[in-house]
Amino acid sequence: MACTQRGAPSMADQFNYREDREAYSAARVRALEALLIKKGIITDRSVDTVLDYFETKMGPFNGAKIVARAWVDSAFKERLVADTPSAIAELALPEGMAGAEGEHMRAVANAPGVHNLIICTLCSCYPWPVLGLPPYWYKDPTFRSRAAREPRAVLKEFGLAVPESTRVKVWDSSAQIRWFVVPERPAGTEGLSEAELEVLVTPEAMIGVAVARAA
To answer: What φ, ψ does residue 94 adopt, rounded to 5°?
Structure first.
């Protein structure tokens, strides 16, 4: 899913990525996979099994369910922020939410006057069970360093102009705490069901480089 909004510069423009970055990286991955299979370290099904796990069981669809529930249930939202793992355990989500990069997850909620942004200055720690695999720009040293120093400017480059009256809080993920954002519920969605609200929740909004918008 693209993280830029309409009118915003592309990630290639922002971070000087080569235009064929994804194809180039995919070719390198295929070559490495073939070498590992040849050496007997993995089988030809190993990578597919992992990818299937993060495509069907662990991913942003879980985060969307969590956020949508927080939008319709204020008491759940309070529990989610106070004790994220316990609140998540209340929902009918796949087993393993607390493992495989989901250890010690913590949620922070946007509110009028406060906007949260998630980064990882050390590496690319990321709550995979609720956000899926991290986008390549999240791991880029330029994003990690600049977002820590000048988050408002970086958000503007993503197409998100945060008013000066709104405080921007930056949360640095690590192996000890993996943060994600509960974005504000979009205006005009009062009549939508919880399932319909899930569609409005994007990984970018749960990182904080975007906001949730009504369809």
So the answer is: -60, 155
